[in-house]
Structures are given as structure tokens and as C-alpha cells.
Amino acid sequence: MRVSDKDLLAHHIIPVVVLEDAADAAPLAAALTAGGLPVAEVTFRTAAAAESIAAMAKHPDMIVGAGTVITADQLDTAADAGASFIVSPGLNAAVVKRARERDLLVLPGAVTPSEIMATLDLGLTLCKFFPAATFGGPGALKSLGAPFRQVRFVPTGGVSAENLPEYLTLPNVAAVGGSWMVKPSLISAGDFDSVTRLTTEAVAAAAAARK
Length: 211
Fold this sequence. Notes:
alpha/beta, two-stranded parallel ribbon, 41% helix
């Protein structure tokens, strides 16, 4: 199922999830949904990624995508598992092409002017900005807003509950990606109540920043 960028970015936060055990996927989906954030980017960094996507996609309210997708083959695996959007750390034309063939929303990574221009050449105006902290954070995004007014960014990497407002008050930031509400330590401990609490707090902070 393809989702629109409006649906994906509605809450202005995309939890970036690393799952080592697919058995944690369903309770994590329930915890995120209970916290008011029914969306997750499951990174393709573990062997459990595809199975985890399939499990989370069964939740009727969840929008589940695949992150750290760097090849077209990975994209196919993610799509077959039920991913409805694709996030890549960089720009790969083959990944963008396959996403279009599979009718999936794709967010390629772009941080330099040349990368952003290459993304525009492919007809895309929504980019992941990663790793955000390393590449200048809010200051860099503010500077990029002048020459690339049509581009919106989803900064990820170094985004936290503390600096969330700095990003979301920028007009060219559509949402942020973060993992502070889905820390692997919480998931492995089965502490899904804390996931729900941190998610609720994140959603409230994002809403306040957008006012």
C-alpha cells in the first residue's frame, strides 16, 4: 500500500526503529499507536527487519516503512514484507526507480546542494537529511532553505527530545526522524509502557513546535 507524504508526515515525527527480534514488532506497534504516533521506519540493519515490518504492518492503524534501504533488492524485500514507504541514507537512482515501479513513497538522503539538485532532477522534493547533526543541523537546513525553497527535509541522526523544536520550527522541515522514544534498550527489556510515554511526550512537543 502506498501512503501519501501527507499521511506519513502528519505527526511530524518518524520513529526510527532497530529490531533484533521480530517478536517485539507487534507490541511495539501497539505502544507507538497508544502514544499517538502510528508510524515507524524499520531499519534494514538486522536480520529481523523484513519479518518485523510484516508483523507491524498487520496493525490496522500503523504506517510502516523500511529504512537504511541502499539497494533495489532490499527495496523489493521490504515491499514484499508490507512496507508502504522507503527511506534511504543517500541518493541511489536505482532505488528511486524501483520504488516508483512498486508504487512506494521514497525519501532519499541528500545533504549537499549537488545531492539535492540530483534529487530534484529525479522529480523528488522530499529528502532525508542524514546524519543531521554531523552535517550542520538546524543551521545547515536554514541555509539550504533559501536556494531550495521547494524542498522539504526529514532530518535524522542526532535529533532528540531536547533539540526537536529547533528543527520543527524551520519551514523546510516536514518532520524529524528519531529513536529516543524507541531505544533498543527499552524494546529488548519489553518496556513498552515507557515507549508509549516517551511517544506521547514527543507528539505533544512536536505539536507545540508547529504552532
